[in-house]
Amino acid sequence: MATTDKASTRDRLLDAAADLFYSEGVSVGIEALCRTAGVSKRSMYQLFAGKDEVLAASLERRIPLHEEQLSPASAADGTPRERILRVFERMEYLSTRPEYRGCPFLAALVELKDPEHPASVVAGTAKGRLQEMFRAEAELGGARDAAFLARQLMLVFDGASARAGSRIETLDDGLATTTVTLLLDAAGVG
């Protein structure tokens, strides 16, 4: 029974951390985290060494959902060009939701500013996976320089995500997909 209680406490902490860090930023304190999760600080410290470890674990746990939200239903759906565009179409759609605050991984990287921080390592891994997906799809689509195109796509993704997440820009008019279409055309991705 103790295992179930610990798993439940761990899940509540990670859920609360994901929500709070995304909506409020990584500076949220342990008091607020534990209060939101409905757990004592003692329980938190029995499961995690500290807030940094909770933040890293919550980001790690978020990767599959984030990738699922942005990906086509199947890797075989459409052409490489359509699969790349689908990521930006999904981001544009997600950005219209009131709770949208941009890419959680980019936000963590920007706020933490320390590439060695455990959460920065996780966030960097998530961003690297997206860039690698862009590179692989660009290569399959015949891009002249798939690695360079992947870097360009990351700039558009991160920039559009940050601007929409901070409510500086809206993406509901296809701004990101229009920009990406131009990049794909210039790179020769058919």
From TrEMBL:
PROSITE patterns: HTH_TETR_2 (PS50977). The keyword Transcription regulation applies. The keyword Transcription regulation applies. It holds the Pfam family TetR_N. Keywords: DNA-binding, Transcription, Transcription regulation. Residues 29-48 bind DNA. Residues 7-66 form the HTH tetR-type domain. PANTHER family: HTH-TYPE TRANSCRIPTIONAL REGULATOR YJDC, TRANSCRIPTIONAL REGULATORY PROTEIN. This is TetR/AcrR family transcriptional regulator.
